[in-house]
Design brief:
Length: about 400
């Protein structure tokens, strides 16, 4: 049971007599603006940009305005329960750190700063296949804290199998298989800025240290980094995959498997038919298909199809506490936070990530209580009104 939001709020106001000149931002917009100030064009737009004309990114945010919360009164909301259960475990909050590659382009602490921040807060960190440091190093700084591994399903099955094995060996407790990025989309800002971090050797840490990947190179990456990166561009993704291939993953891991990037209810059904353990409704933050359905718009149909038979997580557009509440009320089991964490990382390293997540949780907790609700896991559609 918690009154997390009240505590965070109190801590802030307590400093009123003693203002901190290095105070970190509160508003999402302020984090983004500060990140813009500290980052070069290439890295900033790599994070902030989307596919094509950015329509999906906009839709991800405006979708939340199409639902309004209808608060209830006099329901004793003094102690609130923020926990959710997934895959036989209880999580403190319905929030995870989204898988984000190449964090080293944003801050020198990179993936390790974010992972440490999450570990300290009891928020699961989802390590990306495209991290700059290998997954074992991330695991090391997290100790026993909860972590998931995001798989980019390589064209080379040996690399895929090896990643799954390494994740299991280093204490990751779930595998997130990202389906929406077998190749990178047409990203106008990155093309304009001529910026692709991998070609600079960022975000390839798991590959360069992987025995299966290395065994396919003529020379080790330490001797010939350019050829290693060229090989990476050949095997990174696999646009040839079909639903029949899911069996390969099952054969190579005993961990729960979640499919990330599901937007169509028929794909949610196929996911269940193929025996996966969960899905993540996501359009990759609008970075893949411009003009795609927003993730929040896709959510209700999908939760209706899944009928509570497996966890349905959601990301793409979570910025504030009320966003979390709306997604949960539409049937999400938990949500993932992406860009806000990256702006936190850019501005203040791991400390910034922690501040961003702490504020979202505090806002979420207070908003839930003020809406007359006591438990994240019990939120339902009845607290929402569709405005359009
Ligand atoms: C810079 C950046 C890198 C990302 N890298 C990955 C990745 O390696 N793997 C992955 O599954 N998703 C990746 N994503 C997508 C996020 O996991 C998540 O779906 C997205 O950020 C959600 O949108 P939002 O941040 O606008 O809320 C990345 C997103 C950003 C912004
Ligand atoms: O940039 C991305 O959205 C992304 O998912 C990605 C893909 C490959 C490597 C690193 C990140």
């Amino acid at each position: 049971m918690s009154n997390f939001g009240n505590q965070v709020q109190f801590q802030v106001y307590q400093t009123m007599q003693n203002p901190d000149p290095d105070r970190l931002p509160v508003l999402y917009e302020e984090w983004e603006k500060k990140a813009r100030d500290v980052l070069e064009d290439g890295p900033y737009y790599y994070v902030a940009g989307g596919a094509g004309g950015g329509k999906t990114m906009e839709a991800n945010l405006s979708a939340f305005d199409q639902w309004s919360i209808v608060p209830r009164m006099l329901r004793n909301v003094e102690d609130r329960d923020l926990t959710v259960d997934m895959f036989g475990q209880t999580y403190h909050y319905p929030i995870l750190h989204a898988p984000i590659g190449v964090q080293s382009i944003i801050h020198e602490e990179g993936d390790l700063g974010s992972a440490r921040a999450c570990a300290e807060m009891g928020i699961p960190f989802t390590a990306s296949s495209a991290s700059t440091v290998p997954m074992e190093k991330i695991a090391e700084v997290m100790g026993d804290a909860s972590r998931w591994f995001q798989l980019y399903w390589s064209k080379d099955p040996d690399v895929t199998a090896s990643f799954l094995q390494r994740a299991e060996n280093s204490g990751y407790s779930a595998i997130v298989v990202t389906l929406d990025t077998p190749m990178l989309a047409w990203r106008e800002y990155d093309l304009k800025n001529v910026y692709l971090p991998f070609l600079l050797g960022e975000g390839v840490g798991n590959y360069l240290t992987d025995p299966a990947f290395r065994s396919k190179l003529d020379k080790p990456p330490e001797e010939d980094p350019t050829s290693a990166i060229m090989h990476w561009t050949q095997v990174f993704g696999n646009p040839g995959l079909t639903w029949e291939d899911i069996g390969f993953l099952r054969k190579h891991t005993t961990l729960p498997i979640l499919l990330k990037g599901v937007l169509h209810p028929d794909d949610a059904k196929l996911a269940m038919d193929h025996g996966v353990d969960g899905i993540i409704v996501s359009n990759h933050g609008g970075r893949q298909v411009d003009g795609s359905i927003s993730a929040l718009e896709a959510l209700p149909q999908i939760t209706k199809t899944v009928q509570g038979k497996m966890p349905v997580l959601m990301d793409s557009g979570i910025r504030r506490g009320s966003d979390v509440l709306k997604a949960m009320a539409l049937g999400a089991t938990a949500v993932l936070v992406g860009r806000p964490c990256m702006y936190g990382l850019a501005v203040a390293g791991g400390k910034g990530v922690q501040e961003v997540l702490k504020n979202i949780i505090a806002d979420m907790d207070l908003t839930m209580g003020l809406a007359g609700q006591k438990s994240m896991a019990e939120l339902d559609r009845k607290i929402l009104n569709k405005t359009t």
